[in-house]
Amino acid sequence: MVSRSSVARPRVVRLAGLGVSGAALLALLSGCSPIDIGDKLGGFGWPRHGITEQAHKMYDLWIASTIAALVVGFFVWGLIFWCVIRYRKRGDTLPVQTRFNMPMEVLYTVTPVLIVAVLFYYTAIVQTDVDKLSAKPDHTVEVVAFKWNWQFNYRDAPGADANTVASNLGSTDVIPLLVLPTGKKIRFEETSRDVIHSFWVPEMLFKRDVFPGNVRNVFEVTLDREGRYVGRCAELCGTYHAFMQFELVVVSPERFDQFLAAKKKGASTQDAMGAIGFSGNERFATTTEPFDTRRQGQSWNQPMAAGK
Questions:
Q1: Who's near 119: CB < 8 A, 6+ residues apart?
Q2: Which residues pair with residue 152 across a beta bridge?
Q3: Which residue from 10, 206, 220, 302 has the least number of CB within 10 angstroms?
Q4: Of 131, 162, 193, the domain-final residue
Q5: C-alpha distances in angstroms, 18 versus 15, 30, 125?
Q6: Which of 84, 104, 131 finishes a domain?
Q7: The pTM is what?
């Protein structure tokens, strides 16, 4: 007569073997760069080319988490199909009934806890690094949002009491340009003049809400790739929310210094763009253009007091 424990042991051995195989597969995958795997598999839905150091770290976390989820998924799916095939009905004889199996229950409890702990650990590390603020950023930009446009104030220091040395205000006819350098720590200090907006450049792989009142949402990025990238408001803020756009222009530190120097001397944003080598329509936004909304009203065109 076969005891229940002797029947259960082979099952546990097989389950343990599957667990070891899954762990080995995970270890094999972890030996490859998440970026390489993500690029080969299309980024699993995320943009594959972030433009900040923080974006690369978040991309790595996303790819690694997705790979871990797929490994767990294949392991669970394998167990399901194995049970379906192994224990399919073959006659009227009732299979051996097991009330509990302690090794299996320990496996089912410990494994998810370990997976969650590892994911939490790396998420906390990346999130802390993304939210980290330096003592002395290289440049500070005050982002002022209002219905339905943007104003970017270049400041001489962090904090609400700093002075604005140059500013760029969007209008109905002109998309505002936010010109910034590569390789420098850029601090953004966001504030809204009316309702909640959201500052979003898709290539940064994250966005930050812009709150009204005395709440200033502050974060830093280090841009590492030149180019022009569309920016949007990602928080429903009213009738013309969809038209609330801007353009991020990333240039070399030398060209940025020339741009800022021209702005400090009173040049318009388009003239300052011309001073650093952009000509014709390149002095305006190239990733997007104003919409013909046929709207009238002071709220869109009214300049905002710098630093207020």
A1: 65, 68
A2: 143, 168
A3: 10
A4: 131
A5: 5, 18, 30
A6: 131
A7: 0.76
Classify residue 241 as exposed, middle or buried by CB count within 10 Å of its CB (0-12, 13-18, 19+).
middle
Are 67 and 211 contained in the same domain?
no
Asked whether residue 11 falls in the same domain as residue 115, the answer is yes
Which residues are 169's β-sheet partners? 151
29, part of any domain: yes
Q: Are strands 177-181 and 245-251 parallel, antiparallel or unpaired?
A: parallel
183 contacts 224 by C-beta, under 8 angstroms: yes
pLDDT digits (tens, 9 = 90+) for 156-180: 999 988 999 999 999 888 999 999 9
Render pLDDT for 186-227 as a digit per residue (tens, 0 to 9).
999 999 999 999 999 999 988 999 999 888 999 999 999 999
Place of tokens 């209008």: 171
Is the domain of 111 the same as that of 165? Answer: no
- Tokens representing 149 are 């446009």
> What is the domain extent for residue 112?
7-131
